[in-house]
Amino acid sequence: MSDRPGITIVVPVFNEEQSVQPLYRKICEACEALRGLYEVIFVDDGSTDQTFHILERIHRQDARLKVIRFSKNFGQTAAMAAGFEYARGEVIVSMDGDLQNDPADIPRLLAKLEEGYDVVCGWRKNRRDRFWTRRVPSVVANWLIGRVTGVRVHDNGCSLKAYRASVIKGVVLYGEMHRFIPAMARLTGARIAEIGVNHHPRRFGKSKYGIGRTWRVVLDIITVKMITSFASRPAHWFGFLSFPCMASGLSALFVASGVYLGRLIEEWMVMSTVALLFLILGIHLLAMGIIAELAMKTGDYRPKNTLHSSVTVL
């Protein structure tokens, strides 16, 4: 199509009424320098302030701005997934809507992409966030993600990334998986690079993230490990978990038989109960693995489809 944009910029926003207009101007300035067709998609993730109305006004003045509005807050991952789905560009760039990411870095991301990569991640080397509540947990989380997934990226949490549309549209995102996009993209064989990008202090509003989300990141790491390593063989994952339980149950059963020979009835009852519980848990995990194998081969559930009934597109 002659009017198909070469680049789509996807920006999830939630209660960013003071940021969206200056951010849109900065994005346009960066993209105009590229001398090609582009579009900008703002995804309003159920904002309760004037964010959507400001975006609606900009849309009436500039058709290059598309607006997707959720009827309620679904989270950043769902907002990104919706933006990727509606994007028409051959290359898609994602970024935050709080002015901390710098649109001036977009040409550099695209230049790196042209070197033959499929995903280029931004790395906030000089991050302007609180040290103990944001930067330290981020370093630990990125180290864990790299160890678990094998995809060594310094800053998985940086939303400023560039993707080939053919790659990112094949990545299924749900839950809070936006920070694991490099690991999920690697499953498709994507070539991944990383460059340093600017990061500015937050000017308006307050951050939607904090130290309280750490436990969610840990759970997501476990989920991603299962997806990246055992997606095609879930029975192996549950079998891996069941072996320690089975071994503990057999060990407790052996101890129970020993104390029974010594006629220690109370101790025998305790150990035999422990053995039974561990063995039942191991069998239960194995059964879950079998059920997961059957579910994988008989169905393919895509959570993002449930969002369509809650979306307005301008």
Helix and strand arrangement:
Layout: E1 7-13, H1 20-32, E2 38-44, H2 51-61, E3 65-70, H3 76-86, E4 91-94, H4 106-113, E5 119-123, H5 131-149, E6 161-164, H6 165-168, H7 181-186, E7 192-196, H8 214-230, H9 234-261, H10 265-298, E8 311-313
Parallel strand pairs: 1-2, 1-4, 2-3, 5-7
Antiparallel strand pairs: 3-8, 4-6, 5-6
Helix pairs in contact: 5-8, 9-10
Helix proportion range: 40-55%
**Rg calculated over all Cα atoms:** 24 Å
Instruction: Write out the strand line-up for the largest beta sheet, numbering strands in chain order.
Output: 7-5-6-4-1-2-3-8
What series of H and E elements makes up the topology? Answer: EHEHEHEHEHEHHEHHHE
Measured by DSSP, the beta-strand proportion falls in: 5-15%
Structural class, judged by helices and strands? Answer: alpha/beta
Annotated CATH architecture of the largest domain = Alpha-Beta Complex
Q: In terms of per-residue confidence, which ranges show pLDDT below 50 for 5 or more consecutive residues? A: none
| Secondary structure: number of strands | 8
Separation of termini? 21 Å
Number of spatially distinct domains: 2
| CATH class call of the largest domain | Alpha Beta
Mean pLDDT over the full residue set: 84
Instruction: Note the overall shape.
Output: elongated
Q: Write the CATH fold name of the largest domain.
A: Spore Coat Polysaccharide Biosynthesis Protein SpsA, Chain A
Instruction: Give the full name of the CATH homologous superfamily of the largest domain.
Output: Spore Coat Polysaccharide Biosynthesis Protein SpsA, Chain A
- Main sheet overview: 8 strands, mixed
Q: Tally the helices: what do you get?
A: 10
